[in-house]
Write a structure and sequence with these properties.
Blueprint lengths: L44 E5 L3 H15 L7 E5 L10 H6 L7 E4 L6 E4 L1 H12 L7 H31 L5 H24 L10 H14 L16 H11 L2 H6 L33
Parallel strand pairs: 1-2
Antiparallel strand pairs: 1-3, 3-4
The structure holds glutathione (GSH).
The site of glutathione has 13 residues, from helix 3.
Length: 288
């Protein structure tokens, strides 16, 4: 743990007793820690995830596709409990060598296609099924601009602001100031964009909204980090208007609870294998 007198040594060494919220899963090396195959269900799309903002992006997209009547997008969503190290199983590392949720395998192709990185999964699904990524080059480019913006910006919000404001074992003013400044700057970027446009990338609802909402939407709605007041979320009126509008979409209401293991019990559907699972969402269907 750091204190004001800390001087970095010549060569960093791993202090396994380092403390902090993620000390038990953080390691300075990659790869599997144990042999275990991933389960495979009945649908072509097999999702291995957790209902964090990065996980929600994909389950929202899948629910939006199903709402459009794209039956081929039906999916099994398996729970990966990152706090217990499920992302380090040999099976998970085969699908994502980076050991982070979400990860997807599409068994409708031969051989099956692995897709990792939530932004890549959104693009893959949009291109495969032909929805939520405009075909017109300019509109498509603007959608990808915002998708890449989100993928580059969210680590400052989550790994920076959220970590030091909510999770770090000590409150470090320098770190909280630095990342609050950046989080607020990002919210201002979004607020200005949403003052001019109904959705993040323009007049159409796209994968950019599905990527941005779980992060910045959840923050201004007070759903993550309990930081809405601290960040003065009410001042980002356009972000709030958009966040509420996206939150009211039925597919978003479903997608945001899939693989979720925190929050109210009626907002936790630990695994999803069928549309009817939303009727029994408090049951933990985790396979041992
Ligand atoms: N850039 C990645 C980030 C994914 C990510 O950070 N996932 C986190 C949960 S939100 C995770 O799996 N953490 C587990 C770990 O770090 O061991 C993406 O967009 O898919």
């Amino acid at each position: 743990m750091s204190d004001n007198n800390y001087q970095p040594p010549k060569v960093w060494t791993w202090n396994q007793q380092g403390g902090g919220a993620f000390a038990n899963i953080n390691r300075p090396v990659s790869g599997a820690t144990h042999e275990k195959e991933l389960p495979v269900g009945k649908h072509p799309l097999q999702l291995y995830s957790l209902g964090t903002p990065n996980g929600q992006k994909v389950t929202i997209m899948l629910e939006e596709l199903l709402a459009k009547g794209v039956t081929g997008a039906d999916y099994d969503a398996w729970l990966i409990r990152i706090g217990e190290g499920d992302q380090f199983s040999s099976g998970f590392v085969e699908v994502n060598p980076n050991s982070k949720i979400p990860a997807l395998r599409d068994h409708s192709t031969m051989p099956p296609t692995r897709v990792f990185e939530s932004g890549a999964i959104l693009v893959y699904l949009a291109e495969k099924y032909g929805y939520f990524l405009p075909k017109d080059l300019a509109a498509r480019t603007e959608t990808l601009n915002w998708l890449f913006w989100l993928q580059g910006s969210a680590p400052f919000l989550g790994g920076g602001f959220g970590h030091f404001y909510s999770y770090a074992p000590v409150k470090i003013e320098y770190a909280i100031d630095r990342f609050t400044m950046e989080a607020k700057r990002q919210l201002d970027v979004l607020d200005k964009q949403l003052a001019e446009h109904k959705y993040v990338a323009g007049n159409e609802y796209t994968i950019a909204d599905m990527a941005v909402w779980p992060w910045y939407g959840n923050v201004v709605l007070g759903n993550v980090y309990d930081a809405a007041e601290f960040l003065d979320a009410g001042s980002y009126k356009n972000v709030l208007r958009w966040a509420n509008e996206i939150a009211s979409r039925p597919a978003v209401k479903r997608g945001r609870i899939v693989n979720r293991t925190n929050g109210p019990l009626n907002e936790q559907l630990h695994e999803r294998h069928d549309a009817s699972d939303f009727d029994t969402q408090t049951e933990d269907k985790r396979q041992s």
